[in-house]
Design a protein that fits this description.
There is one protein chain. The chain contains 10 helices and 14 strands. It is of the alpha/beta class and about 325 residues long. The protein folds into 2 domains: about 200 residues, Rossmann fold (3-Layer(aba) Sandwich); about 100 residues, Alpha-Beta Complex (UDP-galactose 4-epimerase, domain 1). Strands 3-2-1-4-5-6-11 form a 7-stranded parallel β-sheet, sandwiched between helices. A 3-stranded mixed β-sheet has the order 12-9-14. Strand 5, helix 5 and strand 6 form a beta-alpha-beta unit. Helix 6 packs across helix 8. The longest helix is centred in the first third of the chain and has 21 residues. The protein is globular, with a radius of gyration of 19 Å.
Length: about 325
Amino acid sequence: MSVLITGGAGYIGSHMAHALVDKGEAVVVLDNLSTGVRGQAPAGARFVEGEVADRELVGQVLKENGVEAVLHFAAATVVPDSVADPLRYYANNTASSRNLLEACVAHGIQHFIFSSTAAVYGATDAPTVDEQAPTEPANPYGRSKLMTEWMLHDVAEASAFRYVALRYFNVAGADPDGRTGQSTPRATHLIKRACQAALGRVPALGIFGTDFPTPDGTGVRDYIHVSDLVAAHGLALEHLRSGGASGKFNCGYGRGFSVREVVQSVERVTGRPLPVEELPRRPGDPPAVVADPSRIKTELAWAPKHDALDEIVRTAYAWESQLPHA
């Protein structure tokens, strides 16, 4: 029996693949390499290049490898791009997930873990967001993920299929052992961009909005180290394998940092000033999004181990420093 990881050569998926291989799991990675990097998937995993939307290919992979669980990471994730080209996001995220689910149901897959997002919530006035908060996404990216959550719920209601949807807050950092990290040059993740600016690979870090209703006027986010996020997936897999019910869980630390606080952290880690450029707000960006992680801590016994902002920045900077740069 094996585990299929879609998007397993990408940022978070490759971390998950390494973690499962480390545990002795048989892992199959499916990735179209549009943003993933082949070399970041572990050597101990079987690699298949292809599309999640290809039902025939997915069915063949499930059958040939005796797959019993699917972890679905493959998706487009850049919020401004989703605003500019919403149909691409509905095709790549929602329609592709629908095809993947059809193949999973046809082959009797009962354990499914979905890479969802805090963007399903949208703007909120609450200091933290729990899983009962209204789902009112502020952008097509969030809506594309919420639609997939709806499909998961409906499939689980109609069959023996069970799932866990993990709603990520702002994922950052890199593998402490240096095996993988965020390698997409166009990635808009704040901490990656800040590290690129610190290394002189971009002229400055753009601060998009300085007039938000937050303590320093910049956006506030809950940053979670990718290794802690991967640990949450491992617990979710154990939960489903042991007969646990389907559910949705926030993945965040329950505290937020502003853009300016992230800038200060990068300056502490690198020991030098970070060049910044203040710019207008981007469409679809809420002022603050911070998790209430009580449910995942209680129900899955999740206990973060890498929740210091400077540690998140330090691992991200170490990874970025060794990436080739033209």
